[in-house]
Amino acid sequence: MKDLPVRRLLLVHAHPDDESINNGATMALYAAAGAHVTLVTCTLGEEGEVIPPGLAHLAPDREDRLGPHRVGELAAAMKELGVGDHRFLGGRGRYRDSGMMGVEQNHREGAFWNTDVDEAAAHLVEVIRSVRPQVLVTYDPDGGYGHPDHIQAHRVAMRAADLAGERAYRRDLGEPHTIAKIYWNRVPRSVAEEGFDRLRAAGTRPFPAVGSPDDVPGVVDDARVTTEIDGSAYADRKAAAMRAHATQIAVEGPFFALSNDLGQPLFTTEYYELAVGTPGEGHGGRERDLFAGIPLPDGGTVPRPAGEAVHGAARGAAGGAA
Ligand SMILES: [Zn+2]
């Protein structure tokens, strides 16, 4: 691809909706700042549970049309985040959602969990060598919470990052490219606890019950978190993107719930652990920019979109003006 922006960010996720929940504010921020943001989603999320009763007929045990429906939800979410480059690993429908750990769908033909990691990674190598991102965001080795597709997304992303840089590997997939920094999605335990305190203080309405930090993928001790991205100026964008995944997420103000009906806080500062690469300069110990420390042709560091205030951050005086 010719003439891409200087900063290029690649995110690898398991299902449509994971990107908006984990990284929606980060994606909106970097897209608005002029970075090239590429999302690769590994499955169509065919095995998800459907929240709105009116769409229950799409479910895998009924019409099994949830996958194509979620393609549309993802496209709408990307519009909200300002991200134009979103792809499915190996092409749309190549890999199927494997369902939760232990279910028979894990072993189905074509299930992502059942797929050879190197074979799947080759598709991602082609994307990496084409877009040439400096930064990759994905899950930790446990996939954040043990879902087979999330674990597999981690394995495929890490393997592809290795292979993309190997000079001898598959030159038909493009010129070798080494990704400078790889991050895993995280939530600091103190932030998760504080978020649930807020939710409890607000009463359980409108959700039947309140979750706990154990229900949030990627929660770790604060000390492991190397990087935080303040996306509060893009809170509205993130909430809108999450709403676009209407079969999967119910958003209510600064909270949301998945199909388990457990209320959770919606985080607009998003957190990361630098897993590969050299940390850049931090503030208060944590990096504030995924590209920190990476030599870039324009020499810039923290991206601040020139027109940040106009980019929809209605609750913005607090977020923007500095
Ligand atoms: Zn997922």
Automatic annotation (TrEMBL):
<feature type="binding site">
    <location>
        <position position="15"/>
    </location>
    <ligand>
        <name>Zn(2+)</name>
    </ligand>
</feature>
<feature type="compositionally biased region" description="Low complexity">
    <location>
        <begin position="306"/>
        <end position="316"/>
    </location>
</feature>
<feature type="binding site">
    <location>
        <position position="150"/>
    </location>
    <ligand>
        <name>Zn(2+)</name>
    </ligand>
</feature>
<feature type="binding site">
    <location>
        <position position="18"/>
    </location>
    <ligand>
        <name>Zn(2+)</name>
    </ligand>
</feature>
<comment type="function">
    <text>Catalyzes the deacetylation of 1D-myo-inositol 2-acetamido-2-deoxy-alpha-D-glucopyranoside (GlcNAc-Ins) in the mycothiol biosynthesis pathway.</text>
</comment>
<keyword id="KW-0378">Hydrolase</keyword>
<feature type="region of interest" description="Disordered">
    <location>
        <begin position="299"/>
        <end position="322"/>
    </location>
</feature>
<dbReference type="InterPro" id="IPR017810">
    <property type="entry name" value="Mycothiol_biosynthesis_MshB"/>
</dbReference>
<dbReference type="Pfam" id="PF02585">
    <property type="entry name" value="PIG-L"/>
</dbReference>
<comment type="similarity">
    <text>Belongs to the MshB deacetylase family.</text>
</comment>
<keyword id="KW-0479">Metal-binding</keyword>
<protein>
    <recommendedName>
        <fullName>1D-myo-inositol 2-acetamido-2-deoxy-alpha-D-glucopyranoside deacetylase</fullName>
        <ecNumber>3.5.1.103</ecNumber>
    </recommendedName>
</protein>
<dbReference type="InterPro" id="IPR003737">
    <property type="entry name" value="GlcNAc_PI_deacetylase-related"/>
</dbReference>
<keyword id="KW-0862">Zinc</keyword>
<dbReference type="InterPro" id="IPR024078">
    <property type="entry name" value="LmbE-like_dom_sf"/>
</dbReference>
